Amino acid sequence: xxxxxxxxxxxxxxxxxxxxxxxxxxxxxxxxxxxxxxxxxxxxxxxxxxxxxxxxxxxxxxxxxxxxxxxxxxxxxxxxxxxxxxxxxxxxxxxxxxxxxxxxxxxxxxxxxxxxxxxxxxxxxxxxxxxxxxxxxxxxxxxxxxxxxxxxxxxxxxxxxxxxxxxxxxxxxxxxxxxxxxxxxxxxxxxxxxxxxxxxxxxxxxxxxxxxxxxxxxxxxxxxxxxxxxxxxxxxxxxxxxxxxxxxxxxxxxxxxxxxxxxxxxxxxxxxxxxxxxxxxxxxxxxxxxxxx
Length: 293
Known about the structure:
This protein is an alpha+beta fold. The chain has 3 domains: 1-45, no CATH class; 49-175, no CATH class; 184-291, 3-Layer(aba) Sandwich (Endonuclease, Chain A). Helix content is 47%, strand content 16%. The chain is built from 15 helices and 12 strands. The protein has helices at 3-9, 16-22, 25-33, 50-59, 66-72, 96-99, 111-116, 121-131, 134-146, 151-159, 166-175, 184-192, 234-249, 259-264, 266-280; strands at residues 13-15, 38-41, 44-46, 63-64, 84-89, 102-107, 200-202, 205-206, 214-216, 221-226, 253-258, 290-291. Strands 7-9-10-11 form a 4-stranded mixed beta sheet, with helices on both faces. Helix 8 crosses helix 11. The longest helix is centred in the C-terminal third of the chain and has 16 residues, at 234-249. The model has no long low-confidence stretch (mean pLDDT 91).
């Protein structure tokens, strides 16, 4: 798989170490030189579009918003925004011609946000939680927690939100989990989270073998997200097969879904997981070898 394709499946961002572990330095340098990757900050690279986001905000004297802001902060996202997402002050008149190619929203950016040209980190999480689909919002919230934001500061900020959208924001923040390794995992978690009786946790150790993406301990069901993200060589394939067999050997049902399943075939994922959970039932008993990360 090409470098940019792997980064897309990683949530749109990757470290230099991740890139060079999967591709030659020549391939990575070529992707950067050809504009398929851009440098976000030292040692951190992402898909192009940041200049478009910045230009869109500047053209309207607004600030980068939602996914455009999340990408500015170097966070992984479910999918990059198709258009620059921009926030302008309430009451500003923006003609249809000037809005063309921009996903525009009206709000109340702070002076600091207007000076910097992007919503602050906490506000970015809250706006994504209120205005994006649940799985996309959860991916951003997970990334923010991995990047050092705390659940407490996010919950306090949720409490100050207007009533409209407050409950949605609380749900996203309460269910966010820094243990998720990349944005692929929260998308899978969002798909299965409302299956009756499901109790999936991310990155739980199973039998000393490894930490699957999601584990339902009581029914011994594992859900793994398989992508080409930095796992396309024969050695990685053999390691994944051995890991799969080891989980099965300790009496776990292992379900594996591709990146396209999670992004575009969510009904299939949900129905498959629900069927396996129902078939296994509660008689299996909780796995005593499962431990939180």
